[in-house]
């Protein structure tokens, strides 16, 4: 018996040793492979035109207007550059996308192109020298001036450097049901006090005031940011993320109280914590709620030919309300150029450069004709026959201010972000008092921020 | 054949391939997790060795972790209760009918082969509040409208609500296992007991239970470890929310590693889950053994 036991131990330890050795070996092999694949490895040495495959990891479905437009342009480019091939992989749900992307990068398999906000994680990649300096690329191609200034500013890090290319542009407004407002004799609110009164009146008359997507968390996060933005501009978030300000400051508490009030008074639809993006939009479009806050990227979904008969010509929008002592102007609100595209430094060769140049020339017209607002200075005139609501938003964009609110989830470090999303919903459900919530957030930042902001 | 089986070296050689697969798919990830758990690493910058700090953080009052842990225990309790005990009940009922047995077996087993995503969607609709889901609709119809609520967003009910789909899903699986065990009881024992005048309850308690005990134990172990690593349905239904009321250890571990980008701390939690599962199995075995004596 003892003999066999020895035998077994020997065999086992051998196996474990083998596993360890091969795992280590595998690790190094892997990085070699990616380096090769990354630099566009020739598929066949014998062939004249080496096929180079570039992968774009897309943070939306690959059938979204941005991805479709880029794909069309890439296919056109491949006709004159047969060696070029763009492959796309899309993940619609943002948390899953980020998890996949970060796991790929952690295992040394960064895609040639991928979508990312200019957040704390991206800034780490920049520090490691992994991303292409997009500002420089655009300046070299003399394209920098063609963009709407805000579209580029939005992509910048706090220090003004820019490593991502914007593909979209949007303002965020409160969409509202015109008929519901009219029936109750309500005006669109100009201040937050009016906003609360409007909500109160709606609620009293049996109408759920606001539809919000609580499952994805960021739409609720916007509500937290409104008042701090009105009071301090973006100073509050830029300071608080580093622990230089506290959530207990007046600006922070104002934001926290707003979410707490909207949630506990039942101004958000009941069960908002588990309502997802489309469900929230459908509540508004089905006439079950009066107000819905969302970006102009939804404009085409609110056009008459897309909605039910009762909702036709029944959707209006108003701007982010004002408040006493506001530091930002009425036409300053959330404006953004969406999640940008970052390019892998390792795979950014001449072919890729050519492609970017080609893309920048074709993109504005192709994208706008899909009923989207492009980050370029490019507008469609009435003759193009777009829906009325499209032109209304286009006008509003032209009137928008020069200071824009930044989404908090693109500013905070990943760990605090994760926590904030969860606790914020709990705040809205009344599980935390505003003071408790402020305390939790301050603690989290104290613990997590030093790893990302020095 | 006998000769080969008698030769222990040959047996070992044949066991080796399975052993290799096991080492690669089970043992080496565990070893890697243990290794990573000693580091602070965000996936981009260099790994920093921090010794037992991650474990100290777990033991030193990471409130979310212990909240997830206690949620996990409730989750396990609900699931084992549903899967094994409802499974056993259905199995017993099945043995007592003759017509339509196959039909019921197939119907009850069906949820086990549906993917988690579909089940999550299904229950999202059942629990839905606006538009009104089946559950709330039924409550209203039977005059319990006051009870209707957004189950998945309710701070008190959300954990139960995410536990039930997972429990319901595998009732059929444990039903089949326990049903087979019940069938394998020799019928002469049963007849002898009946002749001696045993009631149905006595028959079940003193004859059937002891005979299916080994299978029952395996079932409880499987259900418990399955629930301890429960992930997909809670993740899909509520993603741990609202707040942390449906956060389980595996979902918290996953988020810590892949959303908060704290691979080291996530690995430490993974190691904790392994140890916790081993302890749970040992505990169940101990309990079942002690009953026997």
TrEMBL record, chain A:
It comes from Cohnella luojiensis. Residues 1-23 form the signal peptide. PROSITE patterns: PROKAR_LIPOPROTEIN. This is Extracellular solute-binding protein. It holds the Pfam family SBP_bac_1. The keyword Signal applies. Keywords: Signal.
